[in-house]
Amino acid sequence: MNKIITTLLLSTALSAHAIEPLPPETMDDTRVFKVEVLQVTDIEPYREALNGFLKSLQNNGLVDGKNLSVHKATIDFDAENGGFWSKLGVLLRIRQEATRIVEAKPDLVLTIGTPATKYARGMMTDAHIPLVFTAVANPEDAGCVSLVDAGEGATGSTLYTDMTDSLKLVQDVFPQVHRIGMVHSDDDNGIANVAAATTKGKPLGLDVSARQVSKNEHIAPKLKELYAAGAEMFAVPLDTYYGLHRYEASLDLGDFGIENKVPVVTLAMVSVPGAALYIGADFKQVGQLAGTQAAKILKRHTKPDVLPILRQETPTVLVDPARLEALKVALPAQLSARKTVAANGLWQIDLVK
């Protein structure tokens, strides 16, 4: 399923202005640009974001190993053996890596995810090192002025999608659902995603209940709690928890939904076998958007402050028809008319039509 999602997301087109290569006269054939990459945890969506970033730079004549030198630092923990996960500990480790990066004096820093962005940007600003971020759910949670203004010394791209629009789409497909259960960790993106769903769901008549788990906690007990409390659907937030332990939480959630005939939807483009509906921004596309801004900084010497935060304007929507059939749910005619059959029988819904 994960390969299916990756293949489909790669096919979704970016707007022309976002991926247009810079003109040749901006290129410097002799210089090797140094880029430092900083992230917390190593999960496949983050790898996709980085791949998109590097692809965008390549499209602009910046090639790793040629005129580009990329060094990546991942702040991780022993996910398989119950490793230490403390916000204070993560903060200290980010600060340590940020200190090393400042001493390395790179031409640009890419931060992937909210924690790395939030806690490293101040040191980069003080050192006058341009910072570009990606895979951030809500820029304001990473210290940005607004959804489009990153503030001093920074720019980037965001995974932000309008939660109201996403929940309306969920209602279009599952009009009988009024109570949604969500499980999240202490991940900044996950917390923000659940908070948005809770707030935006109320005016739509959707009651969102949430449970928090530790990064190494099994998801099943929380699913049982929510189900016993009346959850009619489970929604997956944008949370690194679902990509850890070889996608254990995602697999268990999918199995729980199938066994109890409860629909599962994802509000992020992460692989959840058993999910009927996927709504969210494509990590690779969002990474490419960050690369677009980075190319302008490196090749045109544009200050990051003047570059807006970019985002995928229309979310990617995928449907698993087999899961809909198992749930005895028919895709509404207005959505069915917009579908195209994709790899392995999944449907992609074009919201732009």
Automatic annotation (TrEMBL):
InterPro entries in the cross-refs: ABC_transpt-TYRBP-like, Peripla_BP_I
Keyword Signal applies: yes
Transmembrane segments annotated in the record for this chain: none
Signal as UniProt keyword: yes
Signal peptide: 1-18
UniProt KW keywords: Signal
Highest taxon above the source species: Bacteria
Database matches in Gene3D superfamilies: 3.40.50.2300
One family name in Pfam for this protein: ABC_sub_bind
Protein name: ABC transporter substrate-binding protein
